[in-house]
Write a structure and sequence with these properties.
Layout: H1 2-6, H2 11-18, H3 21-31, H4 36-39, H5 54-63, H6 67-75, E1 83-84, H7 85-92, H8 99-111, E2 116-118, E3 124-126, H9 129-142, H10 145-169
Antiparallel strand pairs: 1-3, 2-3
Helix pairs in contact: 6-8, 7-8, 7-10
């Protein structure tokens, strides 16, 4: 059950993990999932290239995105546990991306099933763990890890400051 959850229930990831069970056993396999893109590499050689490894599958999905969607996907990596549109636009908006561009790219990522959305009055978004791990690989390859994490930290700090001011202004009875 833990293995299935850690692999986000993705059939290809589960199939690739099953192929590694004889080598590692279930416990070691679960322990090694933090490096899933190196671990899950022994897919069928007869099938399409995107089925040969988890990385090849993600690369094929990435190729379907435009440049802005790719940038937003990478820069969403620091969001562990979910985020709102407000949080994403605060953390990702810069000289390259304005708030509308971030929102449109996020919508595209939802349409491509790379970002999950919990539709409520205020929708919350989240990345599966495997997609976050892929985002980190992409950030490392483009040299943007520090930029993405700094933007995220600054934006979250500003949101916390606003929340603290709002709490101080709230009547005691409330």
């Amino acid at each position: 059950t833990a293995l299935c959850r850690r692999l986000d229930g993705i059939p290809l990831a589960l199939q690739l993990a099953a192929g590694r069970l004889a080598m590692f056993g279930i416990d070691q396999l679960c322990e090694r999932l933090s490096d899933r893109y190196r671990l899950l590499t022994r897919g069928t050689q007869a099938g399409p290239r995107r089925h040969q490894s988890l990385r090849a599958c993600m690369d094929a999905s990435l190729a379907l995105l435009d440049d802005v969607e790719q940038l937003v996907l990478r820069r969403l990596e620091p969001f562990e546990g979910g985020f709102t549109l407000e949080m994403a636009t605060a953390a990702l908006s810069d000289r390259q991306l304005d708030a509308w561009t971030v929102a449109e790219a996020l919508e595209g990522l939802v349409d491509h099933s790379l970002v999950q959305v919990d539709a409520e009055d205020r929708p919350r978004y989240r990345l599966f763990d495997g997609i976050r791990a892929y985002g980190l690989l992409l950030l490392e390859e483009t040299g943007e890890v520090e930029i993405a994490r700094r933007q995220h930290a600054q934006a979250m700090g500003l949101l916390f400051d606003r929340a603290e001011r709002a709490l101080q202004m709230m009547p005691d009875a409330r």
